[in-house]
Fold Peptidase M14 domain-containing protein.
Amino acid sequence: MRYKQAIAYDDANFKEVSMQRQYPIGTPGVPWGKTEKQQWLERQSVKRSYNDEVVSQIEQLKHAFETAEYGQLHYQTQDYTLYALTTSHWNENNPTVLVTGGVHGYETSGIHGALDFASTQAKKYEEQYNFIILPCLSPWGYETINRWNPDAIDPNRSFYDNSPAQESALATQFVLQKSNNILCHIDLHETTDSDNSEFRPALAARDGKENHNWNIPDGFYLVGHTQKPAAEFQKCVIEEVKAVTQIAPSDINNQLIGVPIEQFGVINYDGTALGLCMGMTNAPYVTTTEVYPDGKNATPESCIVGQVAAICGALKFLQSNSRPSY
């Protein structure tokens, strides 16, 4: 994909020098209509298989979890079935831990991290917690390696009433019907180089705004919720992940993705106001993980290990601290 002017960085601090770009769809300064969204959709193509790479793994976990088809996504290109894994011996007296992956379908380690946790770690904690695991909320995004759904909507900005994103609405409906006793929610994500090369320019073009990229953090970091930051909880997660992969250092402005850090490896967003997945419940402990799969020391395996460590770090904190009342 070609742009009017490439972005440049200085090697020492990855400081952005130029952001002037012309996205190949639409008119600068004019939000997209149906025609531009259709042009964008026609540029997308399937690059990998949701059934072969995700559903097949869910099928292998039927002996350990209840598997539920919690909805169908109906698009002009294809229909998709959405799956959840839940604790097979559900105990109403136990609090629930929610794990979500693939809200942005292109963020691969979030999906496979959720599945790996379900396969290798979840049983260790099932006497204390019920689990709801939604491994891949956006299967079309997974297949086409996209941040948006086919309607050019970002599911991770769409967790609110009357959501325009099927992915967000169906996930919220299932989770809230399954449990009103959710103690913790870990939402698994990645920050990739394609955020700057494709997704942020596309967002600016779609909305008719000027593009502003951010410095991509080199490593793992967390996004907490400003309404319930839970600093010690976030710290415990970071400490657990630090043992297996690199934590992203802040930039020269003491920020990550343009947001001031709250503590080492942690920034905060208002997840509810922004319609983020981590704001979908009233859980007192919530966090969004961010892994950098494009780092020179990163591998697909190390990214998955980091995601699993984050979930285990969250559970470690819960086990060591008194449970809040609901």
